[in-house]
Protein 1
Amino acid sequence: MHLIPVGTDIMQSNEETALENRAFFKKHGIYVVNLMSAPGAGKTSLLERTIAAINGKYKIGVIEGDLVTTYDADRIAALGIPSYQITTGSVCHLDAKMVHNSFHGFDVKGFDVLFIENVGNLVCPAEFNLGEDLKVMVYSTVEGAEKPKKYPLMFHAADAVVLNKIDLLPYAGVSANELHRNVREVNPGAPIFPVSCRTAEGVDDWIKWLRARIDEGRLKNAA
Ligand SMILES: Nc1nc2c(ncn2[C@@H]2O[C@H](COP(=O)(O)OP(=O)(O)O)[C@@H](O)[C@H]2O)c(=O)[nH]1
Ligand SMILES: [Mg+2]
């Protein structure tokens, strides 16, 4: 019996397209942030907070990945930010080709920062590079303390973990320390930002760090 390694081909082809995206972003001086999380952890809420904090300082665009609806793209458009919806149908992640194809309908060239909200899923998005500068994982306090151990790939791949919904900690049955410790077990290096997108607590620290990454990345891209 012969096994055909289809998965390997798909991953390799994705890597090639991700590199092309990367070169395109670099050429046009666009800093790209890929936001990943389980459904409902707060990706769009974090985007709203982040946009409110940095709008005017950078030209921002957003690509929204969703299975079916345009709810999130509508939320971003309501802020006056150009947004583009990729509906993936039944596909549980964005891939580099989908992002590449969006350039035909969405002129990203003028943006300083492009946020990509991935499809809500704790597994597949981590396996598909998009050509981004930064992978940010949103992990909410109410998802269960064991998630980093159950889904190590995504937590491991993250350049930063935003620990969202800290306002709900009193009801989550878990301490911030335990969540922190469990993330650290699979990702020893990434900064962890405890925030509440509801109350804005902690958001300033996240913004300060993100702005430093954007400025540093754009300088590097321009070099
Ligand atoms: N209490 C609380 N609710 C939040 C917070 N952040 C987001 N939410 C709520 O969680 C739900 C899902 O948020 P959303 O940003 O749409 O998550 P996404 O699916 O990851 O984009 C919404 O009802 C938000 O209002 C938070 O920090 N605290
Ligand atoms: Mg969303």
Protein 2
Amino acid sequence: MIRLTTPAAHLRPNERYGLAVLLDASRLLPVDDPAADVVRLTITNDRRDDYDAFLAGRWALTHEDGEVRFSRNVLTYVSDVAGAGEEQRSESYDPHDRVPSHENPLVRAERWREPVVSRHAAALRAAVRTAAGPRPVRCLAPWPNGRRWAAAFTHDLDVVAGWPVFTLLRLVELLRRGEVGRAARSTWAGLAAAGRRAGGGQSPVWQGVDQLLRADGDAGVRSTWFVIGGTPTLRTWAGGDVTYRPESRATRRLLSAVSDGGHEIGLHGSFASWLDVATLRRERERLAAVTGRVPGGVRQHFLRMRPGATQQAMLAAGFRYDATYGYPDRSGFRLGVADIVPGWDAKTQASTPLDEVPLVWMDRALSKYGGVEDPDAWIEDGVSLAAACREVEGLWVGLWHPNLTPALGFPDAPAGYGRLVREVLAGERPPFVGTLGEVVAWRAARRGVRARTVTSEGRLDLVADGEERQQWPLVLEDGQGRVVETRPWPAGDHG
Ligand SMILES: [Zn+2]
């Protein structure tokens, strides 16, 4: 447990955001009660920390009996990294109009493979434990069901119609790289698929989706699918943007199979939607009309977005969470967290109700940008990032494209997905696995829990300000992860 002392100086909005993110990620149970004998947290005005040290995982966190102190400039660093404050100030763009990775502070400091902010939050928890002495320390259990970390598998549905075009584009890419063997196998698979199609057989797109659904089903994974809601035109085809309609028979058939498997469907926002509320809302409604369920989540196609502005459009269009914050050209932690954080809008200097679920690992990052064509190497990369998420008891989010099939130019990929799922779930401490909607709901609920009062016998009066009550019980731990108390999810404080 921890109680914030009244700050010596008024905190600025971005500092308040940074503090909220840090405390939430630390899992320490906040206490309102001014009389409770718990560890106090004091934010100081000394400016002893520098940004580079913070990015490298160091900060001046001091503790003495019953008190933990750190300086307020750390809070600005948290909002610049986890709130993408720095990326929102960037004015440089790549050919796809995205903020290039080198504008990200963690890439600049060569720390993008480390959940730096999540580690700082764990250090805060450890400092509170040390400072506590005989005082009680209470933390909220990280994930439901006694699980110590979480994993979510996602799939962006980029290809439904016109698949031979994608086979040809991929052949060009493979031959340019001298991957003659893979190109030959893809050509053969593509021709065989075309032959089967002519004979009335299944399309390779259907087969790709079917294989992923089988792998998810075998492992008991409910995944999250991001689906296009726009209209293809010659221009969108040429730009690699929208290439199918959500209402087509082929798309409907795929989406029924996805829904029947209990998976979640979110919007894969088109290029035109990125800063346009009306387009985002229209695409969301088109998808809802096909699936019968309004999508709560969105991830922009190509991860094409303007940090801040795109999220404001998503919020205005009615979305609950955004899953776009991944690096387009590498895997790692774009917001420095293996976790879910509230959005931060630098323009209005306000925390937003759109939760950010950063993308940690992507199948094609090594292939497209690193020229590595062996799926085993991609999977090793994903599994090593999952280990970093496990270490901070955080969340790993992976993306595997259903169009990675032999006929579309990826001869070894389908078996790779099954292996990825098995390896991420394997080990002594298996993760909690859920759709992005489920992990967002859990984190939002956990974030809202606090203790209003603490009686002299140590009895806690808990309230939960999250909008969603959880079906899971609330588990309180001591500072070492040992369960102290389990009780039903508390009621809210808003009458
Ligand atoms: Zn896409």
